[in-house]
Amino acid sequence: MLKFYGIKNCNSVKKAMDYLNSKKIEFEFLDIKKLDEETLNFWLSKRNVLELVNTAGMSTRKLGLNKEKLQNLDQDKIKAMILENPTLIKRPLIVKDDEVFIAKEYESF
Q1: Structure letter (DSSP) for residue 34
Q2: N-terminal to C-terminal alpha carbon distance within the chain
């Protein structure tokens, strides 16, 4: 079964859930705000940290981050920021068969 990480009131997450439901694809919804380090480490073993961060999101703007600033931070610093502010992650994030899909990549299911 897919693990589907997101925030219930996020429009992108709602669209993705509607898509998966329309395809009758079962998934387990997990609140991304409850992200733990083990889960983040798994994601980082599969994807680049800069792929995970939503540089256009409200959370990055509040922290004064952009692509350039993120590229100048080491991975441990970005990881700590994500664990403190899990909404920095692009949503939805889906784990399927040991692979990590970000944002609209679910449309390939």
Answers
A1: G
A2: 13
- Domains of the chain by start residue, with CATH: 2-108 (3.40.30.10)
Question: What are the C-alpha distances in Å from 19 to residues 23, 40, 83, 104?
Answer: 6, 25, 28, 10
Give me the catalytic one of 2, 3, 7, 10.
10
The structure tokens 């509607």 sit at 18
pLDDT values of the chain reduced to their tens digit, one per residue, 109 residues: 999 999 999 999 999 999 999 999 999 999 999 999 999 999 999 999 889 999 988 999 999 998 889 889 998 999 999 999 999 999 999 999 999 999 999 999 9
Residues 6 or more apart whose CB falls under 8 angstroms from that of 17 comprise 4, 6, 27, 29, 92
- 72 a catalytic residue: no
